[in-house]
Amino acid sequence: MLLIDHENNNHGVIDTRDALVMAQAANLDLVIVSEGKDEPVARIMDFGKHQYQQKKRQRQNTSKPSVKDVKLRPNVGEADYDIRIVRATEWLGKGNMVRFQVRLRGREHHHRDRATQLLERVVEDLSASGKVQSFDRRALMVQLSPG
Q1: How far is CA 43 from CA 21, 77, 112, 140, in A?
Q2: Where do the structural domains in the chain lie, given as residue ranges?
Q3: What CATH architecture applies to the domain 2-60?
Q4: Which residues pair with 144 in a beta bridge?
Q5: Global pTM exceeds 0.70
Q6: Within 13 Å and on the Cβ side, how many CA atoms surround 120?
Q7: Could you report the per-residue pLDDT of 21-61, keeping only the tens digit for each?
Q8: What contacts 21, CB < 8 A, 6 or more positions away?
Q9: Could you confirm whether the keyword Protein biosynthesis appears in this record (predicted)?
Q10: Strand, helix or coil at 78?
């Protein structure tokens, strides 16, 4: 087996018994890290600490769902709209929440109805992959959760 000791020194191919003796001398465990095609890779380490770090990484990866923001303009192009809908569908599929917000500038404030129609269209297009968490017509924002 290929052996890496607790100080990250590579000892190359070594007999299993010799590796166990080295691990016992260091008061650590001999852990097989990877089972390669030719030689397995073993490491001298504290196995309890290794398990703790793996569980900690796993908890970080499965943390609470994040909120993804998508900002639109009331006169967004059809291709841009489709891309944003596809991305939102992917995010909802992964368990994230998606917040759509329509930004108005200048004279666009006179056409708030177009912005609310756009948000209603977003809700309709994403009804299969998400459900409406909140719909704020005044702030021109809709938040969708997976479901």
Answers
A1: 13, 56, 63, 56
A2: 2-60, 67-146
A3: Roll (3.10)
A4: 98, 132
A5: no
A6: 7
A7: 999 998 999 988 888 778 888 999 999 988 898 888 888 77
A8: none
A9: yes
A10: helix
Give domain 67-146's CATH architecture.
2-Layer Sandwich (3.30)
Q: 3-state DSSP call for residue 5? A: coil
User: pLDDT tens across 74-108, in order?
Assistant: 999 999 999 999 999 999 998 899 999 999 999 98
- Tokens of residue 125, six digits: 């297009």
Residue 117, helix vs strand vs coil: helix
Distance of CA 7 to the CA centre of its chain: 32
Q: Decide: 102 and 119 in contact? Cβ < 8 Å.
A: yes
Looking at residue 33, the DSSP 8-state letter turns out to be: E
DSSP state for residue 23 in the 8-state scheme: H
Return the bridge partners of 136, or none.
Answer: 141
3-class SS shares of the chain: helix, strand, coil, % to 5? 40, 30, 30
42 burial level (CB within 10 Å; 0-12, 13-18, 19+): buried
